[in-house]
Amino acid sequence: MKPAQFDYLAPQTVGEAVALLERFESEGEDAKILAGGQSLMPMLAMRVARPKVLIDLRRIAGLDHIREEAGVIAIGAMASKTSAEESELIRSRQPLFHAATRLVAHHGIRNRGSVGGSFAHADPASEYPAVALVLQMQMKVAGPGGERLIDAQEFFVTYMTTSMEATEILTEVRMPVLAPGSGWAVQEVSRRPGDLALAGVALTLELEGGVCRRARMAAFGVNATAVRLSAGEAELQGRQATAETFARAAAAAAAALEEPMSCIHASSEHRRDMVEALTERCLVQAAARVH
Question: Do 247 and 280 meet the contact criterion of CB atoms below 8 Å apart?
Fold first, then answer.
């Protein structure tokens, strides 16, 4: 299919882009932001999305940075996933985000797709929302009232919906570097390499003297947005990092999931089983990485 007719605008600054959004919002016109386009363009082609206006961010300078600022890695919204994948800073200082990026689709998609575009798209089968919950990331957005930071747990609302206002633009994502004494892991199940995940788990694990001091775990591909696996985290707290502990934590995490989604590719119960298996595997892998 071909997209429905739309107007195309390419502002030079974030301020201009925000002003355009504000104008079209006041006029009742549906305007969409175009970043990398790897999610939006297929939706346009299938007419799932039919905006009146596309506002392309590619001509705005300064939105593709990757840098560390006082223990925080800041990634500009227009940085490509390939840039994140090839960044030595991200690979060495936040390997969970690096590994999650390598799981996204195929190399050609990562070449074009932007980091910020994925966060703003908020697909529940995407790796990034779960990683954001685990790492307690923050999203910097710009709007008519200026800039503000939104915590990850408040940013993702439901299926392909964020807490950004219609007149706001995501400009940067921010994450802490991996804490000393931490292990990490991310695993997923998909029908084919590069497909969206049927279920996935991302986590970090901090150990002290062989005891689980802190864990943060999240699942993706199972509900309308990524979800923290809080029951599994509680099961780990203060217990020895053993195979038995990991198995109990994984079972608790899966059992506490609200009714996982069901589709022709995986039933609700199958997704629950996948979360349990993936959580246990990730915990074993993360514990090994602590050492």
Answer: yes
